[in-house]
Amino acid sequence: MSENILVTGxxxxxxxxxxxxxxxxGLTPVVLDNLVYGHPWxxxxxxxxxxxxxxRALLDQIFETYRPAAVLHFAAFAYVGESVTDxxxxxxxxxxxxxxxxxxxxxxxxxxxxxxxxCATYGLPQQVPMSEEHPQxxxxxxxxxxxxxxxxxxxxxAAHGLEAVILRYFNAAGADPEGHLGEEHDPETHLIPLVxxxxxxxxxxxxxxxxxxDTPDGTCVRDYxxxxxxxxxxxxALDHLNRKGAAAFNLGTGRGHSVREVIRMAEQVxxxxxxxxxxxxxxxxxxxLVASGxxxxxxxxxxxxxxxxxxxxxxAWNWMQQGSGPSRG
Length: 329
Ligand SMILES: NC(=O)c1ccc[n+]([C@@H]2O[C@H](COP(=O)([O-])OP(=O)(O)OC[C@H]3O[C@@H](n4cnc5c(N)ncnc54)[C@H](O)[C@@H]3O)[C@@H](O)[C@H]2O)c1
Hints:
Layout: E1 4-8, H1 13-24, E2 28-33, E3 48-50, H2 56-66, E4 70-73, H3 80-85, H4 87-107, E5 112-118, H5 141-160, E6 163-169, E7 171-173, H6 191-200, E8 207-209, E9 221-222, E10 224-226, H7 227-243, E11 247-251, E12 257-258, H8 259-270, E13 277-279, E14 288-289, H9 294-300, H10 309-321
Parallel strand pairs: 1-2, 1-4, 2-3, 4-5, 5-6, 6-11, 7-10, 8-13, 9-14
Antiparallel strand pairs: 9-12
Bound molecules: nicotinamide-adenine-dinucleotide (NAD).
């Protein structure tokens, strides 16, 4: 019988792509998602339990029914701006919710965890590319709520033998190359889908926040990693837990692309003209965020299969072009 893996937030963007990768590996993803942001159509490779990670009775039921060999924990809120105006919402969901999950894992003897952390735990970069050794001092409550969970995981490791791989993603982007899944956030704040929406509908232009940064073209530089590569990295993280135990890894490509570069590439991929609006800098937006992928390469054997911006944007565009097809609810 195939092993069950509990995937919290598995109806969301990165979680759903990871469920597909798990299933390809012969594992059964059991999704726990409250569907606040997730989509039932995105759960295609195993059962969906609709509910909240903070619901202890439901967690007990899931651990008893499915006896998962490990937990992949994606469920969280991830709107940086909202975390500044409504921090309680982020501390409650991301930190307190995770505490309930970790306690349930402890009590049911489930010791293996892969946690979706973020480059936002580093705060403003002191040097770029950023390695895992970079000091962690977030500049918003979202980043702090994720860093708090990293700390919680370390404490549960020391006290209860929890083994965890912490994955600090840079900017997830793209869509399933086979067109089964893609990004569908509402509201959408990520650059690539916003740029592609502007390509599709000039009445919804994209805004470039800040054009006077100390970067080659004045716009912010980010490290975009293909969502299917992130998904594969979770399989490598599970293998790492089996063989080597706890660790933390950055996940990026090690290449930075400016906002203007993304727009130019989106024009090439779509064959459409994109006319962005110019906006002010946003508080707390660092000029450059680029990962050092050395440790993940060395320890996880992780190498992105789709490191190129053209492919990342191409897959996202294919997904967007499908519109609301029959597979989407
Ligand atoms: N997208 C990125 O670029 C990025 C970068 C760094 C880190 N992350 C982290 O990766 C994870 C996944 O991100 P995503 O872009 O797929 O987000 P997403 O919003 O698409 O997915 C998150 C899912 O979690 C669910 N969820 C939220 N709170 C829940 C709760 N209390 N109980 C049950 N389900 C709950 C939502 O309904 C949603 O389906 C998040 O933890 C996010 O912080 C994302």
